[in-house]
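hey so i finally got around to running the thing on that chain from the lab meeting. sorry it took forever, my laptop kept dying and i had to restart like 3 times. anyway pasting the input first so we r on the same page abt which one it is
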Amino acid sequence: MVVLDESQSKVSRHPAYLKHSGLTKSKRVGVSMHYWLDETSNGMYKSHLSLLKEQLSHLPPFSTDIENLRELKRQGGCKAAMKFKAARRLKAHAKNAVMPTLMKGNRIR
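ok and heres what got predicted. didnt touch it at all, straight out
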């Protein structure tokens, strides 16, 4: 959720679709679900996934997500996600607090 900057409900729905199609497996850990690719799945799926990775990973939305994921892993994974999310919220809050002032033509002093 943190890496993709999307809501929990939106993000968790998609891995569930992949699980029901046989591409992923899952395990509940506390209140969270952990998903991973099913290594024993059909060879055709593996070919498609390889092609998608090859063709899409260099495009800006995907490369940004990949870099965010790498950074999150460097910072400690899921535990760091909460700090990352809180920092993003603070940044958005600060931006929203400044924008109305600027939009009214007022100067910040």
